[in-house]
Amino acid sequence: MLHDKLTPKTALAASTQSQTSSAETLSPEALSPEALSPEALSPEALSPEVMNSSDPYYSMDLLRFTTAGSVDDGKSTLIGRLLYDSKAIFEDQMEAMERASRNRGDTYVDLALLTDGLRAEREQGITIDVAYRYFATPKRKFIIADTPGHIQYTRNMVTGASTAELAIILIDARKGVVTQSKRHGFIASLLEIPHILVAVNKMDLVDYDEEVYRRIVTEYSEFATKLSIQDLTFIPISALQGDNVVNKSDKTSWYDGPTLLHHLENVNVGASRNLVDFRFPVQMVVRPHQDFRGFAGQIASGTISPGEEIVVLPSGTASRVRAVHAFTEEVQEAVEGDSVMITLEDEIDVSRGDMIVRKNNLPQVSNQLECTICWVTEEPLNLQSTYILQHNSHQVRAFVADLNYRIDVNTLHRESAHTLQLNEIGRVKITTTQPLFFDPYRLNRNTGSFILIDSYTNVTVAAGMIRRRASTLEEVISTQPDRQKSANVVWESTEISREMRESRNGHRAAVLWFTGLSGSGKSTVARRLERRLFEHGCQTTYLDGDNVRHGLNGDLGFSPADRKENIRRVAEVARLAFDHGTLTICTFISPYRADRESARALLPEGRFIEVYVKCDLEVVKRRDPKGLYAKALAGEIPEFTGISSPYEEPTDPEILVETDVQSVDDIVEQIMDELTRRGLLNYQ
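RE: above sequence
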């Protein structure tokens, strides 16, 4: 018997849900001046059915769930049964399934054909791609991700489960708990899916034996104790016969729990939502005319209301929310998942990729991250390659600094590895060239996840979850330890004080710390400045980054720890030169902000002058005076700043110069003027 057709309104709603779930963001077309005009946004211009927010359908909860299991455990059949018994199948779909079943010689209608859309899937009777289906009951709306069970399609399961709040893991009652059953439980746990439902399927093939069911429950429960699973439920079913799927079965009188659909309708929705930490990645700036400037995107987590204090990252500029626009009207509150446009009280610089957060509720910031990644492409992980890390709407250059271990998803064992192949999962340390603003994945799945993109082919190579800051970051930018000194030593003062030397020199002592990317022009400017100071009669000392590595720091490499030690030693030498009354010029990339601040802390207030020699990365790569960028891009130089190692820009340098727009002579004059203004130099 054919099922009733969906009503036009339900069909429209399902279609609308299908479209919005695939994008869930405001498109440029939707935010064009024409689309934002009063005529286009008037109620008369919109479909009453679509805009009828009083319709109960639009106020129902939405549950996203995924299915997983071994090959031929009945995942697609279960989904087909759910749709069939909940009367969510169109008449033409039913006719197509009946026809396909007859052509295959089946004596029954194969409900799995409803989701097995690829020809290869129908021919083999397995799921390969991730199939999404949408349906609703009077209590709740659902989005189903039917994921493949075979080991070579692990990446597809990760894709389908990444946004799910519940995972149904099917276990064949005849086979019991197999390796893949555990593998899917581990992946669901890894993705922090809050609800796990283990459906013991094909109970009809074991004569609905309670002992078989209890044995599976015991074994899987013991395994689950090794995982981080918040909620674990077991239900005995027969997807083919419909037992305990939608309707209660009289063949399992020993089971007194809910049916599968009843559990789906009543499980707590929103358990994985973060409604505390407001995070709003800006996707685009909307300016239909000069009197309006809004920032559009989807709220990644938390809530926001007009009048709240916010901060724009990475600039740190503060403002207040003037209004929150949701489609056709202003709203008093928007929550996680809403696509909105925010206007601010102040005219401040906000661009795509920036993040708007509450002033007193900030995300973590780091450029070195501990992550778990799933490799999703045929080309294996290359530890020498540079990738693009896409984090919400923000893109940065990144590289995998270390592959800690590969996870055997079948045994949960950690294995040493030098690369990751297709479908493999590993724990890695990732370094980015710019800091990321994030929350740990377990607290916020939206701001704690990312993808890696091959910078040459533009192919997505990995999906990742941020666990925390990398441990090495604590060594690099954490609070500085007490200054070290050898045992049994005392500081020996000379009979000539710094003040006496300054009086004879005719200028005050200071350390001029030049920082910037390799090739930005630090040494060129510093050498010209030193000559100008010498001609002016000043006593100078010049410490160059390459020169000190020929002797004093010749034993150091370029790891984060060695870079830190390199700057520590140079800072101590600069301090000794400062005590002798000289203007000490230091030219070092010094990529880490904390190391520069540590050098500053050695000197009196106002005597450390940070000179940020700024130059666009693309410009310095074209300059490449020593050929280092070419080698770094070819993977010949590991840990090269700007390519495979980060550079933390100064946030408030005493002097900012830009060598890609200013001449060397103009820059030298600018520095001389600033030294005079600060009273360090008498320069006319």
